[in-house]
Amino acid sequence: MNEKEEIIEKLRSGVVNCNEEGVMEAVHEVIKKGFDPNEAIERGISEGMRVMGNRFDKMEIFLPELMIAADIVKAGLNILLPEIQKEKRPMKGRVVIGTIKGDIHSIGKDIVAAMLQAYGFEVYDLGLDVQVSKFYEQARKVEADIIAISALMSSTIGGQKDAIDFLEAMGARARFIVMVGGGAASPEWAERIGADGYAKTAAEASKHALELLEGRRGG
C-alpha cells in the first residue's frame, strides 16, 4: 500500500473507529503531501461515514456513536473543503442543493455540494429542513440549471416528489434539471417521481450533473 492509500485508509478507519485524532492527522497529511482533497473526502471520509450509516441501519451501533462519527467528519471537512474551493475552474453551471423538509441530515449533502464545486459548479446550499417551495424560489432567483434534493430518511423522501410536483404546479418543471439522492433514494424512486437523475455517491452526483447539463445544452 502506497502512502496515499495509507492516508485514505487512515481517514476511513478513523471515522469508523471514532478516532478524531487519527482523522485530523490524516487530513493534515493530505494537505501537506499535496494529495487530492476530493479523493480524500470521497474514498476516505465519505466511505467511513457510509460504513457507519450501514452499521446504524443494522443496529450494530447506536445513535451516540453515529453522532460522534458525524462530528469527526465535520471537523475533517472544515479543513478539506476550503482546499477544494481554492481550485479555480471555469463555471459549468449553477446548482441549488438542500435537504428536504423534516430531514436534518447534512453530511452527505455537504460532501455532494463540495464535489459539485470542485467540478466547476456554482453551488447555492439551502441547508437542512428545506421547504419544497424554497428550492423553486432560490433556483429562479439565481437562474439555476440544477436542483438537487437530498433525503436520508424514508419518512421524508416523499418531499422529493412534493418538490417536483411543486415545480409542475408552477409551470417550471422543464426549466430545471432535478436530481435526487440520499440514503432513502434509489434509481427506481427517481424514475417513479420523474426526477432527471440519481446518484449514490458525491463523485457520481458531480459527474452525472455534468452529463445531464451537457445533454440539455446539446453538448
Description of the molecule:
With 219 residues, this protein is of the alpha/beta class. The chain has two domains: 3-85, Methyltransferase, Methionine Synthase (B12-binding Domains), Chain A, domain 1; 93-217, Rossmann fold. It is 59% helix and 11% strand. It has helices spanning 3-16, 20-33, 37-57, 63-85, 107-118, 132-142, 158-169, 187-193, 202-217, and strands at 93-99, 121-125, 146-150, 177-181, 197-198. Helix 1 runs antiparallel to helix 2, helix 3 (37-57) runs antiparallel to helix 5 (107-118) and helix 5 crosses helix 9. The longest helix is centred in the middle third of the chain and has 23 residues, at 63-85. The model has no long low-confidence stretch (mean pLDDT 89).
Q: Concise description?
A:
The chain is an alpha/beta fold and 219 residues long.
CATH topology assignment of the largest domain: Rossmann fold
Largest beta sheet: what is the strand line-up?
A: 2-1-3-4-5
* Total separate domains: 2
Number of strands: 5
Q: Output the structural class.
A: alpha/beta
Run of helices and strands? HHHHEHEHEHEHEH
The N- and C-terminal alpha carbons lie at a distance of 40 Å
Uncertain runs are none
The portion of residues assigned to helices is 55-70%
| Broad shape | globular
Gyration radius, rounded: 17 Å
By CATH, the architecture of the largest domain is named 3-Layer(aba) Sandwich
Determine and state the CATH class of the largest domain: Alpha Beta
Mean residue pLDDT: 89
Biggest sheet statistics: 5 strands, parallel
What is the H level of CATH, i.e. the homologous superfamily of the largest domain?
Cobalamin-binding domain
User: How much of the polypeptide forms β-strand, as a percent range?
Assistant: 5-15%
* SS summary, helix count: 9
